[in-house]
Amino acid sequence: xxxxxxxxxxxxxxxxVVFDGNNYPDELNPKQLGKVFANIYKTWDMNTYEKMxxxxxxPMNKKIKNxxxxxxxxxxxxxxxxxxxxxxxxxxxxxxxxxxxRDEILDxxxxxxxxxxxxxxxxxxxxxxxxxxxxxxxxxxxxKIIFSKPKDELLEKYGIMKCGAAQFDALDKEDMIAYRKQDxxxxxxxxxxxxxxxxxxxxxxxxxxxxEIMLMYVKGAC
Length: 222
What we know:
Helices cover 43% and strands 20% of the residues. It is of the alpha/beta class.
């Protein structure tokens, strides 16, 4: 049975955290910080660390305070990957990065979670990132959980029905998750677009992406 101190050590080594901002001493450089981390993490891998710095073109001898926001984010990710974490916790980890680097990091996260030994918890406002790497999506708005669902269910089953006023008035309210009035039509979020297509053949039902689903939940009436 593990004591609390041992549990803390296991948690520290197995969880990698990447925040939106710099959390390292500004006056130190990656070379100096690498030595610090070697004394903090039992699983620290200096070889992986140095490879990550080269991969992201981060200079060994440049002080962290002189890094750009994107460089600081890439540095945080380098550290998280360098002590063989089993869980990565990322807070807006791809914000401020150019699309090429962002896509590269997302590919790294996908590789990371291929087996059942690794997981990623990511907080992001970039829904295209979530569509690429997430298995489950929890949508939080104003401190409240709006929904928590498998990503595939949202993308494969949810849809937006577009119809006129007469069609809208005839809809079964139980089929609606949310709805809103646009210029010349009503838009209705449905949880099963194939069922909606069969039940309402005169209405147009289209697939919905994560952005549209979230927007309907927040901006639409229920």
